[in-house]
Amino acid sequence: MSAIMIGQDKFKISEDEVAKRELKVIKVSDDVIQVQEEIHGIIALVGATSTVNIKKEELKNLIKVVKEEFGWTDICE
């Protein structure tokens, strides 16, 4: 299954550069999902820790996708 985009935006990182952010979700198995945050336009983080920032609207979209697309009917809003 391909990734489903649940959010995207752009933000200024310098006078001349704007980064593009995309938040996607993929079903890994029946009870596991993977949330991916892709940032284009800047050098990615280096290290062992990774975080994903999720906006309120993106969380609502995530809940909708896992219910409707992945069949997780026991997820509350």
TrEMBL record:
It comes from the Archaea. This is Uncharacterized protein.
